[in-house]
């Protein structure tokens, strides 16, 4: 891309667009001002300025839009990126347990946790074994995230368990 060419065009649009808008505003104000300052039966002489102003307004607005479009798009992207990132991260974190249980069910795996001490099968959300009372889930002391019993580090914050 030839950025100098586009940069010079943007500068031209940023100057020419507002000039055309000011010409349109002048023509509209002149025509409306003359229309309302007439006597009762006097015929307007500059009312056609209003119609001449419309193309100036449309072209001026379009050029101004083209001149500032990149700046507006950059600003919008910078403002939206953190919101989109937070939304995606929230959705991924909140749906992870459901996706894991669904994928286990689709693979034909049971949603049970095996006790490392007595080999008893327990529900997936159990924190202690129903048979011997052994801890089935490790809770991180730093962030209170529930981790699998064989985890050495926290899934959430990375601290040693």
Uncertain runs are none
DSSP strand content: 5-15%
Give the strand order, joined by hyphens, for the main sheet: 1-2
Helix share of residues? Answer: 55-70%
Rg, Å, rounded: 34 Å
Helix count, DSSP H or I runs of 4 or more residues = 2
Describe this structure in words.
With 161 residues, the chain is mainly alpha-helical. It has 2 domains: 3-107, no CATH class; 111-161, no CATH class. 58% of the residues lie in helices and 6% in strands. The chain contains 2 helices and 4 strands. It has helices spanning 3-36, 49-107; strands at 112-114, 121-123, 138-139, 146-147. A hairpin with a 6-residue loop joins strand 1 and strand 2.
Short account of what is shown:
This protein is 58% helix and 6% strand. With 161 residues, the chain is mainly alpha-helical. Helix 1 crosses helix 2.
Relevant terms:
161 residues, mainly alpha, two-stranded antiparallel ribbon, rod-shaped
Topology (SSEs and partners):
Layout: H1 3-36, H2 49-107, E1 112-114, E2 121-123, E3 138-139, E4 146-147
Antiparallel strand pairs: 1-2, 3-4
